[in-house]
Amino acid sequence: MKPFLLNDLHCHSHLSSCCRDESMTPEAILEHAARQGYSAVCLTDHLWDRAIPGASSWYAPQDIDHVCQSLPLPQSESVPFFFGCETELPANNIPALAREHFARFDFVAIPVNHMHMKGLVRPDGVDTPEKMAELVQTRLERLLEQDLPFAKIGLAHLTCSLMFSEGSVADVVRCMNENRLLAIFRGYAQAGAGIELNAQAFSEWEARKEDLLLIYRAAKEAGCKFYGSSDAHSRAALQGVPEVLPQVIAALGLDASHQYSVPQAR
User: Fold this and answer.
1) In what residue span(s) does the PHP domain sit (predicted)?
2) In the chain, how many domains are there?
3) Which of 5, 35, 215, 248 gets the most CB atoms within 10 Å of its CB?
4) Residue 28 is inside which H or E element, if any?
5) Residue 173, Cα to own-chain centre: how many angstroms?
6) Taking the model in full, what pTM does it have?
7) Residue 183 sits in which domain range?
């Protein structure tokens, strides 16, 4: 069987407000991807569509016109470079990108667990691993119920520390119901969505590897496809994919048959 190929379908340029590296340009991102021999790379700056009410003061400037300043993207003969975004999923479970505007992007990363955004994403009272596990599973279910082009959607950083920064993300995953996860991920597999392996989402790897992998093993068993992500906000962080993800890919037993690919036409 052919191997699972490294790629980076979720990274940020200096247009994302949380990126403070002015050298983080599309050209720099593509140069790194070509040097690493990635199968694909995608630019995914933070975005809140003006057509969707409720943007925070931080999100409001990061609209479609803002992220489109990166266009046209530089191109390489060796690595396809896609134009995407990372939109938000606020507490009402309605993505911050209007359905009719998905067509402007090759790929859309959607996080269900930006729980550091209290109020906007995280409701009051969700303060234990058990409550957080219930909330995240419910949000995955509510997102799947919507009329969205899931073949160009990726579920971002399912085990990132932002999900439960006051405690252990591994504890949250341990509180999730395996049968419920299988049902959720079967839905995403049938819809064609991608599952993200984020280089910054395995901070507890040494101590809690098996617990962190539970959610990804459920996705694999359900038939989901996977992709890599550095979630880089600096040039140095781009190196996370080759430094971190090979061990995750090996632990999950992924090969080319498990690889998610961005649809080629918007």
Assistant:
1) 8-119
2) 1
3) 215
4) helix 26-36
5) 17
6) 0.97
7) 8-258
